[in-house]
Amino acid sequence: MPAVRKTQPTIGRAVLRKHDAQAFVGLKGTAFDEKVKNGDLPKPIKLTDSGKAVGWVTAELEQWLQRRIAKRDGVAS
Q1: How far apart are the first and last CA of the chain?
Q2: Nearest to 60 by CA among 39, 75, 33
Q3: How far is CA 29 from CA 35, 42, 52, 56, in A?
Q4: CA pair distance 57, 15, nearest whole angstrom
Q5: 1 vs 44: which has the higher pLDDT
Q6: Where are the domains of the chain?
Q7: In the prediction, which pLDDT does 22 show?
């Protein structure tokens, strides 16, 4: 039997739906929504033409976390 090959998303190109994006950055509900609304967190991308399905680019969420870490450590970003 041939080996099953598991594919992984390209680093930095993975997209997370809202629930997973919230878990990724450690925020839920209103706190997450407010940070997206005020531009602190990146805006989602439309995954469908209707815009009903949206997701967040993992690389952008990682950049946000890096800025939070830099702020904690007193490093200018």
Answers
A1: 52
A2: 39
A3: 10, 15, 18, 15
A4: 5
A5: 44
A6: 15-72
A7: 97
